[in-house]
Design a protein that fits this description.
The structure is a homodimer of 81-residue chains.
Chain A: E1 2-10, H1 17-28, E2 34-47, H2 53-67, E3 73-80
Antiparallel strand pairs in A: 1-2, 1-3
Chain lengths: 81, 81
């Protein structure tokens, strides 16, 4: 069993209204010194077998077709343990 | 400038309908061998100054009060670079 994490974040040039909302709320809650906030998604996948090259290529395909929108988001795949 | 990542995931004992929906969609898209999917949130914060203990304690407070719901979610704080 392998655990793989796919992090999906809005591209830097894309507006991120969720991140902006969090950023705007921080001073109202008394927090200062935060210059920017970006909000994205984190997927934890548990896969059968080993983290072979083929399995990871498949995870990249999942990330491109289902987990992210490549027009507005970047993703990163990380194998955990 | 410091970049800090806050990962927020549903607690293991909590139902995760978003993760279940992704998990259910994978076989329909031709992907097999995925045992479980959990979906959470990823926040990237850019902070002024250095990652001192005080700053990180503040980030933990942000995570507890604004970024996560401690009743149903766990969070993890990671300093990047």
């Amino acid at each position: 069993m392998v655990r793989v994490v796919v992090d999906v974040m809005p591209k830097p040039e894309i507006l991120d209204p969720q991140g902006k909302a969090v950023h705007g709320a921080l001073p109202r809650l008394g927090f200062s010194g935060v210059v920017d906030v970006r909000q994205g998604k984190r997927f934890e996948l548990e896969l059968e077998g080993e983290a072979t090259e083929d399995r990871l290529a498949e995870v990249h395909q999942m990330a491109e077709t289902l987990l992210s929108n490549p027009v507005i988001e970047n993703y990163a795949v990380t194998v955990v343990e």
